[in-house]
Amino acid sequence: MKKVVLGTMMFASLSVTAATTPKAVYEQLISQYAKQKVNVTQVNDTPFSGLKEVVVNGQFGNEIFYLSEDGSYLIEGQMLDMKAGVNLKQATEKSLRKDLMADHKGQLDSIDFFPDTMTDHVTVFTDIDCGYCRKLHQEVEQYNDLGIGISYVFFPRGGLQSPAYDKAVNVWCSADKKQAMTLAKAGGEIEPKMCKNPITSQFNLAIQAGVHKVGTPSVVTADGTLIRGYLPPTHLKQRLEAQKADQ
Prior knowledge:
Elements: E1 10-13, H1 22-34, E2 39-45, E3 51-58, E4 61-68, E5 73-76, E6 80-81, E7 86-87, H2 88-103, E8 111-113, E9 120-126, H3 131-138, H4 140-145, E10 148-154, H5 163-172, H6 177-185, H7 199-209, H8 211-214, E11 218-220, E12 226-228, H9 233-246
Parallel strand pairs: 9-10
Antiparallel strand pairs: 1-5, 2-3, 3-4, 4-5, 6-7, 8-10, 9-11, 11-12
Helix pairs in contact: 5-6
């Protein structure tokens, strides 16, 4: 049975007002609860009779709520299938993240460290100054030796006006991005440069993927799983093999 963690659940009793569509009702109710206008992108059935899963897309990515069909009760928190040992909220988040990464696949610029024979591929959201990001990169050859290809995209933790953002731009605009990445993560100075770059887009993608909630490094696997923090090469390989076995 898979390990699941029960998070905080918050219940709110809300009243339904007239609206033209069920989606509009959910938007009105969650806006009432969140005290701000929200955009509902999905309304899904759940195994629990009378309870809907509602996906909201906002400034800080996707949020998931559960609402009774009559709009009387809202649940904010984890929903667990105790028999199957599955966290249903996390399963939906994983599916949304997989679709998000697929939507950006053709336009997602990255700095790639690939082995000659690649059996696995992960996307790593990284920050130049993050200690565990640097540790991960120190071992990039060991990941490659295990057949794991790494695509780096930037999430400057200080935001788009921070020194971390400037360092990401300097790396991206270097003639040899891979060499510049390695130098920067070793604490070396990269010559300041300016060019057309995707750092802002990568930062926004990270927020949509939920990276801002867990920090860097964040590893996104092919099935949309978000792995928080650094994992040694052999441990990451074990996680990837376990995912394949579960498919």
